[in-house]
């Protein structure tokens, strides 16, 4: 799965002032990502506010993104949630043309046992004609998928090919890397951990801050892949503060305000999310100025 190595970006879903999907800005953002060297794009990961999009909106966004990209970079579709039957049906009905894999977040809110997580992903894997990327983000889902569960899934299902890991648990990362099948991939799911995770053996990042700074994120991943960690560290340190500001009042609220300031649409999010506060706006504008120097 070379298509999902290096730097990927979890695209935001731009909205117009009335809350409708802003396809013009989405198209501009896609062009920006490709021009600046992003290796692949994730359409409708959780950063895309999928929890507040209708099924019809999702279909339109997937098709628009596929048509806009037109085969220039690999595409991954985010199809995940906490209603297993609904996710299975969505995967079965998904038009796979133009997409190389599915990214599926671990079930949130329900707080299933490890066996429940395993059975959920078993159903996902059996329903999918595309390779599946697991996504462990316990800070958002309320439950951690252990290394043992990840490895069990990786060994039991050939089409489960990778995990996007955002647990921040380096002991867990190390166990996965030590015991995984040879071709199973570990991907950073948290921008600040990209460098150390790639030093351990991860193959890249699915980034949030990459929406606004794709060139920097792509270069960081490339330098890490080449073992040039001293050079990579400079970019890592450069992005730390702006990355913090992406998340200080919730994702994608921060990165949408950054994108607005960079000329990509409006910082409109759907309730229950709200735009970042004026205090955070001031800090973001200050950091954008610093990064532009």
Automatic annotation (TrEMBL):
Pfam families referenced in this protein's UniProt entry, alphabetically: DHDPS
Pathway annotation = Amino-acid biosynthesis; L-lysine biosynthesis via DAP pathway; (S)-tetrahydrodipicolinate from L-aspartate: step 3/4
Which SMART domains does UniProt cross-reference here?
Answer: DHDPS
Q: What is its EC number?
A: 4.3.3.7
Listed transmembrane segments: none
Q: Where is this site: Part of a proton relay during catalysis?
A: 46, 109
Q: Which reaction does it catalyse?
A: L-aspartate 4-semialdehyde + pyruvate = (2S,4S)-4-hydroxy-2,3,4,5-tetrahydrodipicolinate + H2O + H(+)
Entry annotation: catalytic residues: 135 (proton donor/acceptor), 164 (schiff-base intermediate with substrate)
| Cellular location(s) | Cytoplasm
- Per UniProt, the enzyme's principal EC class comes to lyase
Q: Where does pyruvate bind?
A: 47, 206
Q: Which InterPro entries match?
A: Aldolase_TIM (IPR013785), DapA (IPR005263), DapA-like (IPR002220), Schiff_base-form_aldolases_AS (IPR020625)
Looking up SUPFAM superfamilies in the UniProt record yields:
Aldolase
Q: Which domain of life is it from?
A: Bacteria
Keywords from the UniProt entry: Amino-acid biosynthesis, Cytoplasm, Diaminopimelate biosynthesis, Lyase, Lysine biosynthesis, Schiff base
- General function of this protein: Catalyzes the condensation of (S)-aspartate-beta-semialdehyde [(S)-ASA] and pyruvate to 4-hydroxy-tetrahydrodipicolinate (HTPA).
Task: Tell me the PANTHER family matching this sequence.
Answer: 4-HYDROXY-2-OXOGLUTARATE ALDOLASE, MITOCHONDRIAL, DIHYDRODIPICOLINATE SYNTHASE
Q: Please state which protein family the record places this protein in.
A: Belongs to the DapA family.
Name listed for the protein in its UniProt record: 4-hydroxy-tetrahydrodipicolinate synthase
Q: Can you name the source organism?
A: Sphingobacterium litopenaei
Tell me the name of the encoding gene.
dapA
